[in-house]
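Sample intake — Carbamate kinase
Collected from: Knoellia locipacati
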Amino acid sequence: MRVLVALGGNAMTSPDGTAHPADQVRAISEAMEHVAELVSAGHDVVLTHGNGPQVGNLLVKNEVAAHVVPPVPLDWCGAQTQGTIGFTILDALEPALARRGVARPVAALVTRTLVDAQDPHFQSPTKPVGRYLPADQAQQMIDHGQQWEDRGDKGWRRVVASPEPQEILDLGAIRALVETGHVVVAAGGGGIPVVREEDGTLRGVEAVIDKDLTAALLARALGCDILIIATDVDHAMVDYGTPDERPLGVTSLAQMQSYAADGQFASGSMGPKVDAALRFAESGGRSIITSLEHITDAVESEFGTVIDASPED
Ligand SMILES: Nc1ncnc2c1ncn2[C@@H]1O[C@H](COP(=O)(O)OP(=O)(O)O)[C@@H](O)[C@H]1O
Ligand SMILES: NC(=O)OP(=O)(O)O
């Protein structure tokens, strides 16, 4: 099977969102054991990953050091996270594969994703990035012109523009690497957002694309059989957070569309994952939302929330 695994922030850093380098290396090393297990079970694996905590931290460095070195735009910050997370994944994945006797080359690709300059999401930021702050400290940032949002128990988080991914511009290179047997890391952080100018040239724009939405696009473009959205819960749930909450196993596309329309999945967490899973399933693929620990079970024995376009859909 050709499988695209989208690694959530929870798979790559500590849950408090501080993204300490040692925590990231530790979390990525653990994540790559699960990825290597999937590869060693005989599947062709393409990886993508989030970058919310990391890109938010780079923005803070920009602000703090602005009087010493010139700040760089958000698309540059996104590109930097692809490099840093990409090489850290490779450093962990190579030995994890070698320990299992799997001889597969690995590669991480700087990847650009085309967005529309007129996308209305540029006007209303929705993508949470960086650390959590208490309300009073967030208010200080808001007073300086930033947009922050109450994210519940953990506190407030900065939000930035998150346009729809339209096209993965480096798809040809990703495909060439996949077809020569590489385990490829691509479109990290949803891809570096770029727009096409009237003269055909490309220009980076200040935004962070949702990595799950780009993952659905990439999985479709690569002809993947399965899209796995790997996070920190085994299943998406309905009536989440209530005494009636229950996990969803194998679920028809129509049923999942109906749950989503009923507002069962929170925006900013499970909502975009279900949206991405639905998009890939609507295009004829199988989408699975599950925990990182269970990605091989997901592919081999339908563990997790499995969304299939069954014939009656
Ligand atoms: N309906 C739901 N079912 C399961 N988890 C949910 C639901 N709604 C919100 N969540 C929360 O979504 C979280 C996963 O989303 P998120 O933290 O954004 O993941 P990641 O960082 O791995 O991409 C879970 O830890 C859970 O707390
Ligand atoms: N770019 C992105 O979706 O990052 P997170 O998954 O870390 O939020």
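Post-analysis note: The chain has a mean pLDDT of 95.
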